[in-house]
Recover the amino acids of this structure.
């Protein structure tokens, strides 16, 4: 079913997407609801149709699988005739693979979504990437060194075999205060959560754009940190079906 003028609100969709996490306890449910509701990137995915219907999605550094849950809820709601008329086509029947190195997050993702998506507990630096139409990396690349980021991006390019899209969110190191704030918060979160990872390497927006362009992506970027003190930027790199990696 295509977009309808149904009465689905963003809040109602967030409630549906976060409900599976509440089975893991109230805190897990609140975390999922808060992140989906207030991080602008999730709504942006749906309003602008960054995930096409039936596409193969690879989410690298997927955390607890919140994007997968949102896509699943969106697919269900749109099929039931509820989808805001002004939004792009719903990401119906997306096939989702998430990769994350943190075993506890992968376990939460699997518990919340069951067989609705594939979650792999692995390090993005070494795990093989499946073929995809859309690769998503949100706030995860800065946990590895610059040279490793480049190697991951090259393999991402290789995974987009028939062309497709990379949706990448990073901090813009040129915005010194916002970037420093996000690193500071990040370090505290990593410490409190006992994560075996820590922030390592950042680049300016211009450097990110040029790296993606060198790989053959047409790149668009925009700020994606509304309501926070961070300097996060969303880059959408598009690649045509005939292009080959450089
Ligand atoms: C800030 S969280 C973002 C989670 C998710 N992308 C989101 O936006 O909700 C970054 C994630 O990257 C994961 N990560 C860090 N280094 C990684 C690596 N080398 N391989 C795979 N995942 C990694 C972390 O475990 C964490 O779940």
């Amino acid at each position: 079913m295509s977009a309808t003028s149904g009465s689905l609100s963003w809040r109602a969709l967030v409630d549906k997407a976060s409900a599976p996490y509440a089975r893991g306890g109230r805190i897990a449910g609140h975390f999922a609801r808060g992140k989906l509701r207030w991080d602008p990137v999730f709504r942006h995915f749906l309003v602008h149709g960054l995930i096409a219907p039936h596409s193969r999605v690879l989410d690298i550094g997927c955390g607890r699988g919140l994007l997968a849950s949102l896509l699943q809820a969106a697919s269900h709601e749109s099929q039931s005739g509820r989808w805001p008329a002004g939004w792009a086509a719903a990401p119906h029947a997306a096939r989702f693979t998430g990769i994350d190195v943190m075993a506890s997050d992968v376990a939460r993702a699997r518990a919340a979504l069951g067989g609705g998506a594939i979650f792999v507990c692995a390090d993005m630096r070494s795990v093989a990437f499946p073929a995809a139409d859309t690769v998503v990396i949100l706030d995860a690349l800065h946990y590895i060194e610059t040279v490793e980021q480049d190697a991951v991006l090259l393999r991402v390019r290789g995974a987009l075999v028939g062309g497709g899209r990379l949706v990448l969110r990073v901090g813009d190191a040129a915005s010194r205060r916002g970037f420093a704030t996000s690193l500071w918060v990040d370090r505290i979160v990593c410490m409190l959560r006992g994560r075996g990872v820590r922030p390592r390497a950042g680049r300016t927006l211009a450097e990110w754009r040029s790296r993606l362009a060198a790989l053959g992506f047409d790149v668009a970027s925009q700020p994606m940190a509304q309501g926070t003190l961070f300097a996060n930027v969303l880059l959408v790199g598009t690649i045509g079906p005939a292009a080959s990696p450089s």
About this structure: The first helix runs from residue 10 to 22. Strands lie at 56-60, 95-100, 118-121, 134-138, 164-171, 218-223, 232-239. The radius of gyration is 17 Å.
